[in-house]
Write a structure and sequence with these properties.
Layout lengths: L1 H15 L5 H8 L3 H13 L3 E3 L5 E3 L1 H13 L2 H16 L2 E8 L2 E8 L21 H8 L3 H10 L13 H14 L2 E4 L6 E9 L5 E10 L5 H5 L2 H16 L10
Antiparallel strand pairs: 1-2, 3-4, 3-7, 5-6, 6-7
Helix pairs in contact: 1-3, 2-3, 5-10, 6-8, 7-8
């Protein structure tokens, strides 16, 4: 029975490459055509594959519907939270999780610093989109035309001397973030606060959320905070793996 299930499941990634006829399916599985046909018929009955008029098979609408439903029901905050807590326990600084919704980037989770100096950020509150590290990651993942459209409609308040001054500067920063795969806010929103961030990706590789570690200068310098970037990225990768279903939950260590 387990061999039959294994063979049936092996058909799905083959058809994800494109329609295939019975001979190709049998060849890929290393079985007789009659065995491949029985498997395909069973998958067809459940809507997981569809037989075209040219007698080739492709993925069925039922499978696509189930995948979409599963993605819609995934809660990135629920998956990420234990990782954020562990990271906070390791480094002691404030940890944030943010997502891009419509025209805003919002914090959806926060683990407070163990130090007396606290940040005023709140869950559900929009971030300063032109300077926040999490916002840069989320917007950098947009297609180029969408990035430009967003950048050109934003205001660019000069929170500090290090704030992004205009759309051209913001687009250059987003291009840099997109290439390097991480982002920072080193005094761009508040002179005394620095932040490093990494992206959380779904099964398709797109950025679905961003996480960050932030700390004031009185607790740790910007240079010292930057040394935590590898750990932040490993944590984000662990969340990505669990969210996308590539890897089981596991603890990230320094």
């Amino acid at each position: 029975m387990s061999q039959t299930v294994d063979r049936a499941l092996s058909i799905l990634p083959l058809l994800a490459e494109g329609p295939a006829d019975l001979g190709r399916v049998a060849e890929r599985l290393g079985v007789h055509k009659s065995t491949a046909l029985r498997l395909l018929r069973t998958l067809h009955e459940h809507g997981f594959v569809y037989r075209q008029s040219d007698q080739r098979y492709r993925l069925g609408a039922r499978l696509i519907s189930l995948a979409q439903e599963a993605m819609e029901n995934l809660d990135v905050r629920e998956i990420a939270h234990p990782h954020l807590v562990r990271l906070n326990e390791q480094v002691g600084h404030t940890v944030h999780l943010a997502v891009h919704e419509e025209d805003e980037v919002l914090y959806i989770d926060k683990v407070e610093s163990r130090y007396p100096v606290r940040m005023y950020s709140r869950i559900g509150k929009p971030v300063a989109i032109t300077v926040a590290a999490v916002a840069k990651l989320l917007l950098a993942d947009l297609p180029e035309n969408e990035r430009r459209a967003v950048a050109e409609q934003l205001d660019y308040p000069m929170y500090t001397a290090r704030s992004t001054p205009n759309a051209d500067g913001f687009l250059k920063e987003l291009a840099k973030v997109r290439e390097q795969g991480w982002a920072t806010d080193l005094g761009g929103h508040e002179e005394s606060i620095n932040c490093v961030a990494a992206p959380i990706r779904g099964a398709d590789g797109r950025v679905v959320a961003a996480m960050s570690v932030s700390a004031p200068n009185v607790v740790v310098t910007a240079e010292e905070l930057l040394t935590l970037l590898p750990l932040v990225r490993r944590t984000a990768d662990a969340i990505s793996g669990e969210y996308s279903g590539r890897t089981p939950a596991k603890e990230v260590t320094a």
